[in-house]
């Protein structure tokens, strides 16, 4: 290969391969451990190939450790959060990016402040508020809390996009008799498709992986635990079931990795676009 | 759509559609972010054990107690390690990798994907997996280090109070490096290629191209990327809770864990005290952020004047 003639390229590729091994080894190890026996995990050293494939680790995690329930909860909560976030951030992003109105600077200022607030500051009142509205041990409570915390970046992404759309598009639609709402839902929102894709992907990852809010919302309702919370509960209840934990972790991991492979483009472009802005 | 309405109510009425559009965000963010910030400040002046529906007002007593609480300062110090060691490490290492990856060669996509794998993985799973991987009695890292002769006795990465925090820093950087690499790649792609061509015509070597072109063009991004990473570093809660639970002996207890422990885990919850800790820490973070933003503005202004 012509590429390998330069010594710099050889060094570079070697360094990257080492890096890739360090980055991916824990995942290979996890999948291997999920198919091994209890003792085998710690007795076979670095060998990644199991003696026999123990698929029952998966059925144990899926059925006895309730990971099927946790999966369902996570799917419902993630779907609800993504939907709600798209609706509210696109509406707000549209008016912030497109119109001048009384209180606009105030709204933007508050949104910017919410971006830097550590989660420890808000968690106690969130629980208190959710409790007084009867939302604490419910999926809806988790969805609302997730959709209402830390979505300023999505709003700013939409605002940036709508700010760049030519004005005459709306003016001609207005001449055709379309109202404010009609213009948004049948022209503006479809135009913002790429932003919606990015926001969906970012929100999906956030909601799927988030931990603190589902953790404290399900203290009194173990049936509503999400995958990450169930994972922690499993670890603290079964300090010895290593292979069951590895299987549970693999179950929690696979959907998000598959999802990531399919939407990688939107994800990387979205992050890159946000930084360039 | 410029309007010149005669009075304030008329103006608000004319913009009613705008306010209707704002309503969902105002309700959601208002209830779950803005109200909690304000409420937390209120709670922080109360003695409230969590079993009662409300607390009693005690002024600055919580803050005074925090000031003398060695565990609070311990948690503060641990968080500072993340801000002062882990953030520069993550930002710097990611820049190096981004520069290497910012070229076309076979497998570049594979590398980008591989380094992104931990980013999309739940911190809860990373925490649990790393507990196995670093286990002193059979975890692969210790076995590998022993077999290559690098160490003689296994290292207890997470069980040693002095070492656990730095292990957590390493794992946090490992987990999040991929996203910072993407930030840097985006920044590198904004540099016009003709600048490099001009430098090449002047006979610049690779190092001169980096110091003369790449580095100056990256300065504004450095500030933004550091800021984003700094904010992310204040949210290490998930990882720490699943990795070490804040132990051993509070060795990895960061502020969020301190708040969580006092508010939800202690047999007698201390909601007011936990709120005060969160507010005190939030103030420090906000101050650091404001300083950074001022620095960005100042830099932009001087850059604008220079051109």
Description:
The complex is a heterodimer of chains A (277) and B (307). Chain A has 277 residues and is mainly alpha-helical. Chain A has helices at 7-33, 38-43, 56-64, 67-98, 104-115, 119-132, 139-148, 152-163, 168-175, 180-191, 193-209, 212-217, 227-237, 242-276. In chain A, helix 11 packs antiparallel against helix 14 and helix 13 runs antiparallel to helix 14 (242-276). The two termini of chain A are 39 Å apart. The mean pLDDT of chain A is 85. With 307 residues, chain B is mainly alpha-helical. Chain B is built from 13 helices and two strands, in the order H-H-E-E-H-H-H-H-H-H-H-H-H-H-H. In chain B, strands 1-2 form a two-stranded antiparallel sheet. The longest helix of chain B is centred in the C-terminal third of the chain and has 36 residues, at 271-306. Chain B is globular. Chain B starts with 7 loop residues before the first helix and ends with a helix.
How would the blueprint of this fold be written?
The complex is a heterodimer of chains A (about 280) and B (about 300).
Chain A: H1 7-33, H2 38-43, H3 56-64, H4 67-98, H5 104-115, H6 119-132, H7 139-148, H8 152-163, H9 168-175, H10 180-191, H11 193-209, H12 212-217, H13 227-237, H14 242-276
Helix pairs in contact in A: 3-14, 4-7, 4-8, 4-11, 11-14, 13-14
Chain B: H1 8-14, H2 16-43, E1 46-47, E2 56-57, H3 61-68, H4 70-101, H5 108-120, H6 123-133, H7 140-147, H8 164-188, H9 193-201, H10 206-233, H11 237-243, H12 255-265, H13 271-306
Antiparallel strand pairs in B: 1-2
Q: How much β-strand is present in the residues of chain B?
A: under 5%
Supply Rg of chain A. Answer: 24 Å
The shape of chain A is globular
Q: Biggest protein-protein interface?
A: A-B, 97 and 98 residues
Structural class based on helices, strands and sheet pairing of chain B: mainly alpha
Strand order of the largest sheet of chain B: 1-2
Summary of the model, kept short:
The complex is a heterodimer of chains A (277) and B (307). Chain A is mainly α.
């Amino acid at each position: 290969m012509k590429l390998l003639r330069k010594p710099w390229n050889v060094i570079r590729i070697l360094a990257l391969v080492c890096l890739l091994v360090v980055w991916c080894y824990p995942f290979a190890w996890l999948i291997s451990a999920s198919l091994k026996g209890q003792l085998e995990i710690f007795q076979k050293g670095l060998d990644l190939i199991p003696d026999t494939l123990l698929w029952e680790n998966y059925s144990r995690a899926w059925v006895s450790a309730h990971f099927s329930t946790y999966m369902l909860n996570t799917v419902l909560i993630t779907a609800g959060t993504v939907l709600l976030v798209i609706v509210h951030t696109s509406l707000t992003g549209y008016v912030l990016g497109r119109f001048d109105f009384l209180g606009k600077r105030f709204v933007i200022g508050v949104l910017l402040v919410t971006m830097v607030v550590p989660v420890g500051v808000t968690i106690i009142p969130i629980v208190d508020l959710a409790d007084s509205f009867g939302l604490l041990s419910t999926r809806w409570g988790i969805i609302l809390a997730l959709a209402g915390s830390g979505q300023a970046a999505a709003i700013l992404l939409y605002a940036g996009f709508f700010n760049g759309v030519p004005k005459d598009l709306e003016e001609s639609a207005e001449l055709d008799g379309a109202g404010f709402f009609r213009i948004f839902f049948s022209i503006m929102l479809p135009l913002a498709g790429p932003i919606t894709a990015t926001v969906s992907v970012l929100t999906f990852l956030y909601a799927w992986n988030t931990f603190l809010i589902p953790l404290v919302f399900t203290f009194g309702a173990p049936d509503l635990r999400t995958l990450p919370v169930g994972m922690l509960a499993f670890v603290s209840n079964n300090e010895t079931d290593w292979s069951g934990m590895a299987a549970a972790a693999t179950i929690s991991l696979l959907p998000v990795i598959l999802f990531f492979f399919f939407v990688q483009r939107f994800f990387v472009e979205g992050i890159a676009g946000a930084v360039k802005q | 759509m410029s309007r010149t309405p005669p009075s304030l109510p008329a103006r608000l009425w004319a913009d009613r559609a705008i306010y209707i559009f704002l309503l969902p965000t105002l309700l959601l963010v208002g209830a779950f972010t803005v109200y909690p910030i304000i409420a937390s400040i209120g709670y922080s002046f109360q003695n409230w054990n969590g079993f009662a529906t409300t607390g009693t007002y005690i002024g600055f007593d919580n803050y005074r107690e925090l000031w003398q609480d060695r565990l609070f300062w311990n948690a503060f110090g641990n968080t500072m390690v993340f801000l002062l060691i882990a953030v520069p490490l993550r930002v710097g290492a990611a820049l190096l990798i981004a520069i290497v990856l910012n070229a076309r060669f076979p497998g570049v996509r594979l590398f980008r994907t591989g380094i992104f794998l931990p980013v999309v993985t739940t911190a809860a799973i990373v925490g649990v997996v790393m507990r196995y991987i670093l286990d002193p009695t059979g975890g692969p890292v210790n076995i590998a280090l022993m077999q290559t002769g690098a160490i003689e006795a296994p290292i207890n990465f997470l069980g040693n109070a002095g070492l656990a925090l730095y292990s957590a820093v390493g794992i946090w950087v490992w987990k999040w490096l991929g996203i910072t690499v993407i930030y840097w790649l985006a920044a590198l792609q904004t540099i016009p290629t003709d600048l490099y061509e001009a430098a090449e015509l002047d006979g610049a070597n690779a190092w001169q191209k980096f110091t003369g072109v790449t580095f100056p063009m990256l300065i504004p991004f450095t500030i933004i990327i550091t800021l984003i990473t700094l904010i992310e570093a204040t949210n290490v809660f998930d990882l720490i809770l699943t990795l070490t639970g804040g132990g051993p002996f509070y060795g990895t207890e960061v502020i969020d864990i301190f708040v969580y422990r006092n508010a939800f885990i202690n047999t007698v919850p201390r909601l007011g005290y936990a709120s005060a800790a969160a507010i005190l820490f939030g103030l420090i973070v906000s101050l650091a952020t404001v300083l950074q933003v001022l620095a960005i503005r100042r830099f932009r202004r001087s850059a604008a004047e220079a051109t």
